[in-house]
Structure formats: C-alpha cells, structure tokens
Amino acid sequence: MADQPFPLRILVLGAYGLIGAEVCRHLSGQGHTVIASGRDARAAARVLPHLPFRSADLARMAATDWPALLDGLDAVVNCAGALQDGPGNDLEALHHHALATLGAEAAARGIRVVQVSAAGVRADHPTIFFASKARGDAALLASGAEAVILRPGLVIGQSAYGGTALLRMLAAVPWVQPQALPDTPVQTVALGDLAQAVETALTLPPGTIWDLVEDAAHPLSQVIAAHRHALGFAPAHLTFTVPEWTLAPTARIADALAHLGWRSPLRSTAIRVLDGGVTGDPAPWRARHGPLTPLTDTLSHAALGPEHRLQARAALLMPLAIATLCLFWLLSGVIALVHLDDAATHLTAIGWPPGLARASVAFWSLVDIALGLAVLHRPSAPRACAAMIATSVIYLASATVLTPEMWADPLGPLVKVLPAVMLAALTPTLMETR
Hints:
The protein is of the alpha/beta class and 434 residues long. The chain contains 17 helices and 13 strands.
C-alpha cells in the first residue's frame, strides 16, 4: 500500500454508524474516493447522501458475494460491528467469519484492510463481543492480507450512539446524577483522532495492532460528570450509585427487549464490558504518532450545544414516552372491556341498540389494546403512533357528532385525548437514533 497512488478508492463497511460515518467524511475530505457500505441503503442515504453505496450484510454474505463488493478497490475499512447476539445479529458470523473471508479476498486482490476493532479484545474473553472480535482480528492477520488492526477505547465525538448516548442520557437526568460501576476505568479516544488514525493506517506496516486510547484512565463516574459539564447541564444536587445487584436483572430485561427490536445500551454485554473497564496501552501509538486527545479536550473540541442537550433529553424521555403510550392505550382498552355496559350507555342514551353499542365499545377497546401492544415492538412503533393519532381523531370526531356533551364532562374524557395525540406525534422523533 505504501506505493499505491493517492487518492485511493476506499470501501467503508458499516459506513453509517457513529465511527463509519466520521471515517467516510474524513477520508472523503482528504480527497479519497469513498464508497459507503452496509445493510440499510436508506440509513446510508440519510447519513451520507453524497456517497455511492454498495449493499452488504456481512453476517449473511456468501463467499461468491465478495468479489463484486471489492471490485475496483484499493482499500477497505471495516467499521461494522454489533454489541450482542440477537435478532438480526450473529456476532461470530459478523466479527469472525466475515473478516476471514474478507482477508482472503483482499489478499488475492492486493487490497489493504483497516480493521476497527475494540480495546481489550482477547480470544478467551468471557463476552462473545470481545472474543469474536479477537478471533476476527486473528483471522484477518492470518489471511495474508495487508491488514492493520486499530483497537479504540470509548469513542467520544459530537455525535453519540450506544454507550456514548447512554452517558449523555445519564448526564441529562435533572437534579440528581445516577451512576453504576463508578470506579470502572475508562480510556477514551476522540472520534476525529480515530478517523485520522484510519487514514494513517493506510500506510502503516501491515500485520500490526494499535491500541487507540488516551494516556490516562478515568473512573466512569468522572466520565459521566465530564459529559454533564460539557453539555452545559446544571450540576447535580445529589449523586447516587445504583447497587451492583440491580445490574443483572436490568440487563436481562434489556436483553428481552432486544427481541422486540430495542437495542438498549444496558444489555448484558454492555454491562459486562463496563464492569471489566475499557482500557488499552497508549504507548506504542504515542511513540510513533504522539499522544491522543484527552477526554476533557475531546469534549471541549466537540462543541456540544443546545441541540446535543435536546438529543440527550430525548434519549432520556423516549422510553418513558413509549411506556406512557403503552399504558394509556392498554388501560383504556381494558377498563372499557371490564366496564362494557357502563361504557355503552353513552351510545344507548342516544338511541343505539344495546347489542350494537356493546359491540362497538368492545371493538374499539380491542383496537386500543392492540395499539398499546404494538408500540412496544420497535419496528412497528412509528406506525402504531400514527394509528394512535388516526384512532384518536376518529374518537374525537365521532364523539363531537354523536355525544358533544362529553366535551363538557367535568372529568374531561375527550380533552385528555389531546395530550395523548401530541405524545404519539412526538414519540417517533424521540426514537430516531442516527
């Protein structure tokens, strides 16, 4: 690769993720021809609309799919990865087997590969995330390809996703500062430093592994406090540490929610990773390229402002919004079914036959229950919110025509529908992650 002419044609796998998007922008800004790749063309179009796209689901690709993906390239940067096995994610296939095949194809074509791995990976690690990453790194190095492995610590930038989004969400809690595993050591790396390191790796000696971490490790509590300060939130009046015994059941709940499409940063793998710390050896990279940006400078250079505070608050409010909508619609439907005759009196009072009135109430009660359950399914939640709005409009319009006196009811059954409509309208926006 050292004698390859610049600019290069570079494929970035996992291009629309937190790291991949920054790598794409940096390499493109340096004059390279960058091709984005990933599973979701629409996500890539939203994040990187100016780049060409090649579709690839690494965990499901056959060996015969790789030649077309790698056609005409000088280098590949792999930023693809997943935190935990679950629906749509097979870590062994994604982190290990795909890397072995990529390495073999790249070696045959003389393509440089830069693998963005993770600090602390090792084959005997108890979490499949780290263990599968280690096996993939080893397979890539053994393939004969011109490969360089970068192992970043906790990546911090202006954007946030996963663990960094969780840090900001915790920092956004008003008045108090909740925390867990406060003494866990964490070394960070600036997102911009990582993107620059990827470009540098295009000319580094092949077969090398580099930890990308700042010099000093910080306790996790200090990392959270630094984010709170950088985001401009008021200092907490009280800090409390969540007991460690609560982490396992919390992780099990988060793992269960993954089957409904919710990729919580509190899943069991994330908890185990944090429990072991996020650290690496900064000395080799520092000796050759100088020290990486420390945490406080990284957050200062990120220029976090009102939009990032809003994003952090949205991340904090989103699960509460989903839970509120679910309970509102479920309880509305269940209560109406339990008190079917009482609910039907509003219709029988205006002349509806009792059977038809009860059937109407039962039908719409079941609709309420179905919508309350549907919003719990992440892929269906935006459509469920739209259906909630449409159903509410039908309720309000029908009541206005058939039972207008309900608008003057002291308990305000119709008036209370309006904030529920607004919450259903806002929730899909709170759910946006990229």
